[in-house]
Write a structure and sequence with these properties.
Blueprint: H1 10-21, H2 25-54, H3 64-113, H4 116-121, H5 124-166, H6 168-177, H7 179-215, H8 217-222, H9 226-252, H10 254-278, H11 285-326, E1 347-354, E2 363-370, E3 375-380, H12 386-393, E4 401-406, E5 409-410, H13 416-421, E6 423-426, H14 437-441, H15 450-459, H16 463-467, H17 485-499, E7 503-507, H18 515-529, E8 533-537, E9 549-554, E10 557-562, H19 564-570, H20 573-582
Parallel strand pairs: 3-8, 3-9, 6-7, 7-8
Antiparallel strand pairs: 1-2, 1-4, 4-5, 9-10
Helix pairs in contact: 1-11, 2-3, 2-5, 2-11, 3-5, 3-11, 5-6, 5-7, 5-11, 6-10, 7-9, 7-10, 7-11, 10-11, 15-17, 19-20
Length: about 575
């Protein structure tokens, strides 16, 4: 499991976050203005209460007129402070939600631009955790930062100014003692960062494992592997617990440590101020009350800010993981490439070299010419390169050497969208999105009419079971019970039959379908393949005996090529595979 590497530096993360925040200047300015108003009103209230105390200086000497005026001002000021604070929170929430929405949108958009190699080499659950869980935690930290950080800084500056103007000597005592609180907060937050990193990474690892366990639950139960999964989950859970406890424990030291120092500051102000009042100095009783109130307000933001800094450490760790995803290398751009039109299906592979890793060569010097309308069957043992060849044809991966040409043009000069729209794929592993049957079938051709959709479903022998569903073609998949693998595959076949692409790729397209239905679909496939270049990857060799050309692959090379009868007569690799199945 990777740790954040692109954005280890909090300053770099902060700069990028501020760029996102800067997209909402109205909310940002509103937040700052209302925060200033909140602080101003909050700082004015101690002045009013100090004046109120000075209006009650002794028995029989109470200034009721002055008290009434002070209480009216205090009520209005408190109302203004509450309203300004509410508006500040409103602006901050808007900024936080918008920023996280933009971050998630950028991260999700990046997923569509990443090469297939990234998806193949990174845990799906960890990627989901970055986009969902890490974004949520970042949102919480960002909201706390906006809510408390600026308000706290403004409160500190305002109270410093008042104390220095009122009594410079005592004000300097407060200012000089305060850095001790900051040093403690910085020390704790610096040492908790590694625990927040460990917590976030472990949570991503756990999410990936849970996603894997759910998707493979049938296999787990079939092999009675539940206890082993539980043990692995418990081990991850224990690591997450330890990391979370350490992060929480050490970060929680900040508040009590800074509060202890701030209480010492408050006690020093109280003692010096009381001595000044007792000796007839510049302080009145109300004046001392104001000063003590400001000393308390001055130290309180330090506690909040220290908590914010600790929270931001965790938030920046999550943001770093999101930015790491956003910064991943995209597929090479094809914006300048030409859109493919008039596809007939003439394909040529010229001395193609490819490997998933540099250490292990897979395909070397593969050359192949396929004419329009040919049915090309690809057979071979597991790991021989059959699926890899399909990945290269669809440009899910780019070749390391040589070229794949379609209609005489290198496919690297063609836009991926137009290239892939020229193929119709039916894979052994079915994929259906959350939506209605109609939406899934029309995915490849949204403009198709319902009559065309039903005709394609009938050709694929899927119309019968679709009509038996509660809402027919408007049934939402997943809400009407579980479809069998065979039914899912029939829907995928229907999708391709409706799209009518110029070329087809059938990778064990009928592997989950019973033999009787497969024979019925065979006639529809024959009609569909007529005049279309078709690549058929098959393990059941009985399904490809009528192919125009059969490619036998071993270790990334085509070792035999020809028709079924020719290859059997040769008695080579194909004959060995065929006889192995039917002996």
């Amino acid at each position: 499991m990777s740790t954040p590497k692109t954005n280890k530096n909090d300053k770099g993360v902060l700069k990028r976050v501020l760029k996102y925040v800067g997209k909402y200047p109205v909310s940002l300015i509103g937040s700052l203005v209302f925060a200033l108003l909140t602080v101003a009103a909050t700082l004015y209230i101690p002045v009013l209460f100090g004046d109120a105390i000075d209006c009650i200086v002794g028995e029989g000497r109470v200034d009721f007129v002055g008290l009434k005026s002070v209480f009216v001002k205090a009520a209005v000021t408190a109302l203004v402070a509450a309203l300004a604070q509410w508006l500040t929170s409103l602006c901050n929430n808007r900024i936080s939600c918008n920023v996280v929405r933009d971050l998630r949108a950028d991260a999700f958009e990046k997923l569509g631009k990443l090469p297939l190699q990234y998806i193949d080499t990174h845990g799906h659950g960890d990627t989901v955790s970055r986009v969902v869980a890490d974004a949520d935690q970042f949102s919480d930290g960002l909201l706390m930062g906006f809510t408390q950080f600026f308000t706290g800084i403004t409160t500190i500056l305002g109270t410093i100014a008042f104390m220095l103007i009122t009594n410079a000597k005592i004000g300097l005592v407060v200012v000089l003692l305060t850095p001790a609180s900051l040093l403690v907060a910085r020390f704790v937050s610096t040492h908790t960062h590694k625990f927040f990193v460990e917590q976030t990474v472990t949570r991503g690892e756990q999410t990936a494992f849970v996603e894997e366990a759910i998707s493979g639950l049938k296999t787990t139960q079939a092999f009675a592997h539940e206890r082993e999964n539980e043990k692995k989950f418990e081990e991850m859970n224990a690591r997450l617990e330890r990391a979370s406890l350490k992060a929480t424990f050490y970060s929680s030291l900040t508040n009590p440590s800074t509060r202890f120092i701030n209480n010492l500051v408050y006690a020093a102000v109280a003692i010096i101020g009381a001595f000044d009042v007792a000796t007839g100095g510049v302080f009145t009783v109300g004046g001392l009350t104001k000063f003590l109130s400001y000393a308390n307000q001055y130290t309180k933001p330090f506690n909040e800010i220290s908590g914010v800094i600790t929270e931001l450490k965790g938030a920046f760790t999550c943001a770093a993981r999101i930015f790491e995803l956003i910064d991943e290398t995209e597929e090479t751009s094809d914006e300048e490439n030409e859109t493919l039109v008039g596809v007939e299906g003439n394909i040529c592979l010229e001395k193609v070299d490819f490997s998933y890793t540099k250490e292990r060569k897979l395909i070397e010097g593969l050359s192949l010419t396929v004419q329009r309308g040919q049915r090309v069957a690809i057979v071979g043992r597991t790991g021989s390169g059959k699926t890899t060849l399909i990945n290269l044809l669809m440009r899910f991966y780019d070749v390391d050497g040589g070229a794949v040409r379609l209609e005489g043009r290198d496919i690297r000069t063609i836009t991926r969208k137009s290239l892939r729209e020229s193929y119709g794929m039916v894979l052994q592993d079915t994929w259906l999105k959350n939506g209605t049957v109609r939406e899934n079938i029309k995915m490849g051709r949204p403009s198709a009419s319902d009559e065309e959709m039903i005709a394609a479903a009938k050709a694929a022998h899927a119309h019968g079971f679709i009509k038996r569903m509660e809402k027919g073609y408007d049934t939402v998949l997943g809400e009407s019970g579980v479809l069998s693998e065979g039914q899912k595959q029939l829907l995928c076949i229907t999708r391709v039959m409706l799209a009518l692409p110029p070329m087809l790729i059938l990778d064990e397209a009928t592997s989950s379908i019973d033999t009787r239905t497969e024979r019925k679909i065979g006639d529809a496939f024959d009609a569909l393949m007529e005049g279309r270049t078709t690549f058929i990857v098959a393990h059941r060799l009985s399904t490809i005996v009528h192919a125009d050309v059969i490619l036998v692959m071993e270790k990334g090379r085509v070792v035999e090529q020809g028709k079924h009868a020719e290859l059997l007569q040769k008695g080579g690799a194909y004959a060995a595979l065929y006889n192995g199945q039917f002996a």
